[in-house]
Design goal:
Shape: globular
Number of helices: 23
Distance between the termini: 35 Å
Largest sheet: 6 strands, mixed
Number of strands: 16
Radius of gyration: 32 Å
Mean pLDDT: 77
Structural class: alpha+beta
Strand content: 5-15%
């Protein structure tokens, strides 16, 4: 499975030509092809035991998020998608807590209310432009606006009405149709009649997991919401009511006595829509009786009736609004605008404020679930990240609309048209935000550049593991260090940048709301902010128009838009129905079916491989396969992720959907057959199965997932034949890669997030995931304690330098590691000495095959040999547990070369 921005079939299958073998045109399964475009087998997989034939298939899902029209529509729906993503960022609620349940119910309800206000705000902004600025003000009979450009018939009564109401009506129709689009699961690929794991059709499954299996696996909650049709009908009705209210007088009241009935009906319809979205709740909560009753009331026929009533109200407003008032310069703007934009903006701001306040105790209540984890594994902002995301969605939505409106005002001339008074407040808001952002950048950018300059000149640009990866290659080490530093900066501080931007928007909003609440004109000291805000909003509008144009005319150039679309469209519709359809609801069931079809062959093994965003799809598919496959078939399933965000991003941003515990469960269920390809130079990916990594005595160590389903210290990293460091399930690839090597793929330069399948470690990870090759030493679950046998610890940087380089005594001061077999050790055998193995000195003695513990023999020094100055401190005692049994650590196997031992690791570099 490929990642964001899609790819070609040839690049996905790593072949010269590829051909489709299954799919429906949207989800395409491809294989390598020969010259006659016939499916061909993949390259033979070279394992340590023997070559193994394999079939390579790629799943292409890029057509569900790419394409000119799709991306153009996505640009307009981006604020809606942010509000929908905020729903999935909520912290998990404790099932045994009544307060937690009520908080979760209130937070989800507030999200749906805020989403409806966003829809109404967009419709109101379009109505202001078409009905107020153009139809009522610019096209008034005898006006100077567009004189000589607009024909006389366009200034007639019916033409002005059409110009004013057709655009919002078309917008509402477009939003309704977008909300109805869903990707249909290919029945041939995942039909219940042929699928051996029938039932995984993308809908929420209420069946309990198999006995003895955890109920938490990645993406369990990523299911379609059956309330989406009801939510769609309520949003459409609310949008129609908003346009009708504005056409008949706005929030200040009806424009005439004949418009009173239509105005009141439109207001009642909007309030009913607001109450409806407030009461709808997640159907997974069986105790939400009110939402169940409302769901019954909002069946197919009632939904059609309320939408039809909304259409009738908007049509009636066309009749009662005539004749259109023709404002004079002294009475501009017209009463069509009223203060609808300001009222909706204030309501949204209040909803976000209440949401942020209620989210704080909900996040605090969920804190006990992650309080014991390392800081870099805890959720962003302590689980409070949904609040700033929701706030930014509203501010961006208001900014897009205000920018377009003010741009039209500038083009038509301020002497001809006057925007609503709320836009003056928005200009102050965005002006304050722009100034604060520039001030923040003026401080942050020099600090970052200074830190980088100091790190480079103090040789601290990259962590010690980068030096291990590129030991013996100083040029590659310097090149990798620069990319490694920037990648670490982006991964570690992405959420800080989002929080800082949200804080700036909040400060700007506070300034603007104070000005709006006082009802006064912009003070003199705020006038420069208003001028800057006009420029910022115009730039925002032009950027949006340019993005839409590029997305339509040159789809490949809109890369940032494609990235945002691919990330946001993964999540099903929950808070807002008018977002692009979720591709995960189609991709995951089809992947599950395809893998199950291959597993029908008892001699076949299946490895799901996902790059970047595809790694999340692969992990969710693997979890559902493990939940549904028979126990005998689970051992033939493996998982490989490359450039994945499954540690640093998804569990931290979406703690209730991809919790850390679900990844632990997935790793334990796969029993060491989850391998992750990582590069430190990859700003979008990172380590997946390990954390708290550090270099000790020239060896990479760390904590991570273990094959028995637990997590803790891991055996020290091993060096693969391709130069990668393998720690736990993570394969850290050198970038730039070693090579080129004869008969192996190779990519020059820093590859970062791209082209993982060009690394020779790719095939080795696939072989381990398939169970065709044993994991590196000590990582199959037999060793549980990493450092228990190490009797020497380096405390100072100079000691580390001596230990690795042997500067003072011409020999490496290598710690001794005690080794025993996995079999249980009888007390009578506990004192039989065998050979001691020094770690990393290039020599590895044979281990006794008897069940015996290991004690270091006293070997006298050879005549003339130099004695280490630390030899007196190197006394080793066997480590035992509370039962008196020896603790089993890890030990290296085979010979190692100086570059494998990290001989050029500087002494001052201690991680």
């Amino acid at each position: 499975m490929h990642g964001i921005l899609g790819t070609t079939p040839e690049r996905l299958t790593d072949s010269v030509a590829a051909v489709e073998v299954a799919g429906d045109g949207l989800g395409r399964v491809v294989r390598p092809a020969d010259r006659l475009r016939r499916p061909a087998p993949g390259p033979v997989l070279q394992t340590t035991a023997r070559p193994v034939p394999r079939v390579v298939e790629g799943y292409l899902w890029g057509r569900m998020t790419s394409g000119g029209l799709a991306k153009a529509a996505w640009a307009m729906l981006f604020p809606f998608a942010m509000a929908n993503v905020a729903h999935w960022m909520l912290p998990p609620a404790r099932p045994d807590s009544r307060i937690g349940f009520l908080l979760g119910h209130a937070l989800r309800a507030l999200l749906r209310v805020a989403a409806l206000l966003l829809t109404a705000l967009l419709v109101a902004q379009v109505t202001v432009v078409s009905l107020d600025l153009i139809a009522a003000q610019c096209l008034q009979p005898g006006g100077a606006c567009l004189a000589g450009v607009a024909p006389d018939w366009l200034r007639s009564e019916w033409a002005r009405v059409a110009v004013g109401l057709i655009p919002p009506a078309l917008l509402i129709l477009l939003l309704h149709q977008v909300a109805k689009v869903d990707w249909e699961v290919n029945k041939a690929e995942a039909g219940a009649s042929t699928n051996p794991v029938a039932g995984l059709t993308g809908l929420r499954q209420d069946a309990p997991p198999p006995p003895g299996q955890s109920a938490v696996l990645p993406g369990d909650a990523v299911e379609a919401d059956p309330d989406t049709p009801a939510l769609r009908a309520l949003h459409t009705t609310g949008a129609l009511a908003t346009a009708a209210v504005m056409a008949t007088g706005g929030p200040a009241g009806p424009m005439s006595a004949t418009a009173t009935q239509v105005w009141l009906t439109a207001v009642v319809l909007f309030l009913l829509s607001l109450v409806g979205v407030l009461l709808l709740d997640d159907p997974a909560r069986p105790s939400a009786a009110a939402s169940r009753r409302l769901r019954m009331l909002l069946g197919t026929v009632p939904r059609k009736l309320i939408v039809t009533l909304g259409i009738a109200v908007l049509a009636a407003s066309v009749v009662v609004m005539r004749p259109l008032p023709s404002p004079s310069p002294s009475s501009m703007p017209t009463q069509f605008s009223g203060d609808t934009i300001g009222l909706l903006a204030v309501a949204f701001a209040g909803c976000v404020l209440v949401f942020a306040v209620l989210l704080a105790p909900a996040a605090w209540a969920a804190r006990r679930g992650w309080a014991g984890r390392p800081r870099n594994l805890r959720p962003w902002a302590g689980g409070w990240m949904a609040a700033p995301v929701l706030g930014m969605s509203g501010l961006l939505g208001a900014g897009f609309g205000a920018g377009i409106a003010l741009t039209i005002v500038a083009l038509l001339g301020t002497e001809n048209v006057t925007p609503p008074p709320a836009y003056e407040t928005l200009t102050v808001l965005w002006g304050a935000t722009a100034v604060l952002s520039l001030l923040a950048l003026a401080v942050i950018v020099p600090v970052i550049l200074t830190r980088r300059w100091l790190a480079e000149h103090q040789d601290r640009l990259a962590p010690a593991e980068a030096t291990l990866l590129h030991a013996g290659r100083p040029d590659d080490r310097r090149t990798a260090a620069r990319a490694w530093w920037w990648a670490n900066l982006e991964r570690e501080h992405l959420h800080h940048a989002l929080l800082a931007f949200a804080a700036l928007l909040a400060l700007g909003s506070a300034v603007a709301l104070i000005q709006y609440a006082t009802g006064a004109d912009v003070p003199e000291w705020l006038e420069p902010l208003a001028a800057v805000g006009v420029i910022a909003l115009a730039a925002l509008a032009l950027a949006l128009i340019r993005t839409v144009y590029l997305a339509k005319s040159r789809p490949n150039t809109a890369r940032l838009l494609g990235v945002l679309a691919d990330l946001a469209c993964f999540w099903p519709r929950e808070a807002h129905p008018t977002v692009p359809p979720c591709y995960a609801l189609k991709v995951v069931p089809e992947l599950v079916h395809r893998a199950a079809e291959h597993l029908r062959d008892p001699a076949a093994r299946v490895v799901l491989v996902g790059h970047s965003q595809g790694s999340l799809l692969a992990a969710v598919a693997a979890g559902r396969l493990l939940r549904t496959l028979p126990e005998s078939d689970r051992s033939r399933l493996g998982l490989v992720t490359a450039g994945s965000q499954l540690q640093w991003a998804y569990p931290r941003a979406f703690p209730a959907v991809v919790p850390h515990e679900s990844l632990t469960e997935l790793s334990g269920s796969l029993s060491g057959r989850w391998r992750a390809l990582c590069r430190g130079t990859d700003a979008l990916g990172g380590g997946v199965t390990t954390w708290n990594r550090q270099v000790y005595e020239g060896t990479l160590i760390g904590v991570g997932f273990r094959a028995d389903g637990t997590e803790g210290p891991l055996p020290s990293a091993t060096r693969s034949p391709s130069g990668a460091l393998v720690l736990g399930g993570d394969h850290w690839l050198p970038d730039p890669a070693r090579g080129p090597f004869t008969g192996r793929r190779w990519g020059p330069g820093v590859l970062g997030h791209n082209d993982f399948n060009s690394d020779p470690e790719w095939d080795r990870a696939v072989a381990i995931a398939a169970g065709l090759e044993l994991p590196p030493r000590g990582q199959a679950g037999e060793y549980s304690h990493l450092l228990a046998g190490v009797r020497h610890h380096v405390a100072e940087a100079d000691d580390l330098d001596d230990a690795l380089d042997g500067e003072a005594n011409s020999e490496a001061d290598v710690p001794t590691i005690l080794v025993t077999r996995v079999d249980a050790v009888l007390p009578s055998q506990a004192e039989k000495p065998v050979t001691a193995l020094p770690a990393g000195n290039g020599e590895s003695s044979a281990v006794s095959e008897s069940d015996e513990t290991v004690t270091p023999p006293d070997v006298p020094a050879a005549p003339g040999a130099k004695t280490s100055r630390k030899a007196a401190k190197r006394k080793v005692a066997a480590a035992v547990d509370e039962n008196g049994d020896p603790i089993v650590p890890d030990a290296p196997r085979g010979k190692s070369t100086p570059w494998e031992r990290g001989g050029d690791l500087p002494g001052r570099r201690k991680s």
